[in-house]
Design brief:
The chain is mainly α. Helices cover 77% and strands 0% of the residues. The chain is built from 5 helices and no strands. The longest helix is centred in the middle third of the chain and has 29 residues, at 66-94.
Length: 133
């Protein structure tokens, strides 16, 4: 992992964000969207699992050791699941729709939390790169 330079760490965050687009966009089905509001629904779990798998692939491709990659990917999948579940239930209980500004605020906050997760994952890797802060 010594090959993960400061630029490499930024590239890792970029790849995680691009992975997020792929998993929240083209790979997310309408069934996954609806299932995220019901705790434990298989399609909601599958959506979070796709995120975890994508993160695992990105980190392994960037040279992050297997155990660390697997642990962070699992943590990210769990966080992703609960962030989505919370957002979906807040929006549903408040009866916000795409016509309401609050819907978009909730969606934006949801996305900000997901991307903050990737920054935390990168921060965890800083000591492994030899970078000092």
């Amino acid at each position: 992992m010594s090959s993960l330079t400061p630029l490499g760490l930024l590239f890792l965050v970029f790849l995680l964000q691009f992975k997020h687009f792929i998993c929240d966009g083209p790979l997310q089905t309408i069934g996954m969207v609806w299932a995220k509001r019901i705790y434990g629904k298989p399609l909601g779990l599958a959506h979070a699992g796709l995120h975890g798998l994508g993160s695992l692939i990105v980190m392994l491709a960037m040279g992050v050791p297997w155990g660390l990659s697997a642990g962070m990917a699992l943590a990210e999948a769990l966080l992703h699941y609960h962030i989505d579940f919370a957002k979906e239930n807040i929006v549903r209980k408040a009866d916000w729709t795409v016509k309401d500004a609050y819907f978009w605020w909730a969606l934006s906050f949801d996305q900000a939390l997901h991307h903050a997760t990737y920054l935390v994952m990168a921060a965890i890797l800083i000591p492994k790169t030899g970078l000092t802060g």
